[in-house]
Design brief:
With about 400 residues, the chain is α+β, with helices and mostly antiparallel strands. It is built from 6 helices and 12 strands.
Length: about 400
């Protein structure tokens, strides 16, 4: 048994959308937006896109009753549709990449949760009783897909079938996405993965940014609240062109690799949405600031909702979870359609996996904090460059005269 088996595998199942089978009509979205043509109050921060404020309909106004067809696997937590008004904000054009995260780690010495041996206090903070896990099983690692599962004998749809296709891998972390023998040398422009919610928040604070709210993510994903199923329209593969990185084939037995990527893809590999945002669907699940609550839409504030005060997943009511959005390269039409604009997901706050990442936002009120953080980062870059130049000069052979 590997690290956090009782906790983390369940977290992975949630990340992939395998625990809550869902309900809803195909291709339906009640999103309707009405937003003023609000210009950004200042020049956009580097690598960020201005998302103008406005009013839109968040969620869906219908889901099928039991027995009705639900090919989109839409979930009851996407109901009811409700009006939301958001102020404008800047959003990172892409998920945070390995290159960006590496700079954060180099400057701060930060160590992710997946790289550390967890404690029982960690489990307690996440609402998990870890008393049954022996000390020698609390190892550094994270969740990966088990590509060597028994395809011949796997029967999907029965209890706990998912446990055969997910595993906690010792030594898996952001530098080693598939385990200790893997690396990111040729994936520096891919999204960073194996980051839990705390890791994402730590990066945001370092950069002078914050995680988006769930409402901000859905609004931006749907091109400022336009009524489309996906960020690019209502067809999953328009004219045979893949618009995002997701699983093709019958999950988990058949993988067709129609989009060309077996795991993550470069953050600019697929076209952006109309706002200029990349990977708002597919590639990696992205952490949001909000606690996850299945019924939050019934009581959500209208203006700039920040999420509930605590989490509630009816399937695991004691586990603390945060919202994830956007789907990942593991999402698929027969099991998880997280790439839909309204699709919701949740992840246990301590869990990380090889298909979850994040991006950041900055609002006008936080612009000065962002500038101060970036000034500190730029000063560090200059200091590092100066030190490297000095080191190179000191090691250069003497030039004869």
């Amino acid at each position: 048994m590997t690290k956090r088996l009782y906790l983390m595998v369940a977290g992975a199942l949630l990340l992939c959308g395998v625990l809550l089978a869902a309900v809803l009509a195909p291709g339906t979205s009640s999103n309707e937006s009405s937003q003023p043509a609000t210009a950004p109050p200042a020049a956009s921060p580097e690598g960020m896109v201005w998302v103008p404020g406005g009013v839109f309909t968040m969620g869906l106004d219908y889901f099928p009753v039991e027995g009705e067809s639900n090919p989109q696997r839409i979930k009851p937590d996407e109901y009811p549709a409700h009006e939301v008004e958001l102020d404008g904000y800047w959003m990172d054009a892409t998920p945070i990449t390995n290159q960006q995260f590496a700079e954060f780690v180099e400057m701060t010495g930060y160590v992710t949760f997946a790289e550390t041996k967890p404690t029982r206090e960690d489990f307690a903070r996440a609402g998990v009783d870890a008393s049954l896990i022996p000390d020698d099983k609390l190892n550094a690692g994270s969740i990966c897909f088990n590509r060597n599962f028994d395809r011949d004998n796997l029967i999907t749809g029965v209890a706990n079938w998912e446990y055969q296709v997910w595993q906690v891998v010792d030594g898996a972390d952001w530098r080693h996405p598939e385990g200790p023998d893997s690396n990111i040398d040729d994936r520096m422009d891919h999204p960073v993965v194996h980051v839990n919610w705390d890791d994402a928040v730590a990066y945001c604070e370092w950069a002078g940014k914050r995680l988006p709210t769930e409402a901000e993510f859905e609004y931006a994903s749907s091109n400022a609240g336009q009524p489309t199923t996906y960020p690019w329209g209502d067809e999953l593969v328009p004219d045979g062109k893949y618009m995002a990185n997701f699983w093709q084939g019958e999950f988990p037995k058949t993988f067709l690799n129609g989009d060309g990527y077996a795991t993550t893809s470069p953050v600019h590999a697929f076209p952006p949405n109309k706002l200029g945002l990349y990977d708002m669907a597919g590639n990696v699940w992205e952490w949001c600031a909000d606690y996850y609550h299945a019924d939050y839409y019934r009581n959500s504030p209208r203006h700039n909702p920040k999420g509930p005060l605590s989490s509630l997943d009816p399937g695991e009511p004691g586990i603390v979870k945060r919202v994830q959005r956007g789907g990942s390269f593991m999402c698929n039409i027969n099991n998880c359609t997280g790439y839909r604009c309204t699709a919701r997901m949740r992840g246990e706050i301590m869990s990380s996996s090889f298909h979850n990442g994040f991006r950041c936002v900055v609002d006008p009120e936080g612009l000065e904090e962002y500038k101060a953080a970036q000034a500190r980062i730029e000063a560090w870059r200059k200091s590092r460059t100066s030190a490297e130049n000095t080191s190179h000069q000191g090691s250069s052979p003497a030039v004869g005269t």
